Amino acid sequence: MAFAQGLSAIRAFADPQGFSAYMGLPIDVEQEAGFVTVYALRTTLIAAFAVVLAATKHFRLLGIIALIALILPIGDAWLTAQAGASDTIVFRHLGIAIFLAFTGVMLLRDGRGGLEQ
Hints:
Elements: H1 2-14, H2 16-23, H3 33-55, H4 59-68, H5 71-82, H6 87-110
């Protein structure tokens, strides 16, 4: 999860216009690239947080965060659908949500680390 988020952040910083098209919300002018940078900053924070939780073996807390983070790909799917993005892009966001849900549940089932049981 953290690796994928980090890769997305790097892509967004390096090519805001290309990344926005990949996400399903293309921008037309360079001035709008600031919004993609906001996404990249958010994604960098999420990636760093996930790495710290995993490295410190707070797997239960990481599972809770993964389930809370479902807001992001579900919101991305809704936004891209509203913007007329292709079904492939919308379903990619929903696939990320499914992955997060599965990962969150599996981390909670394992229950090692993080919050007291």
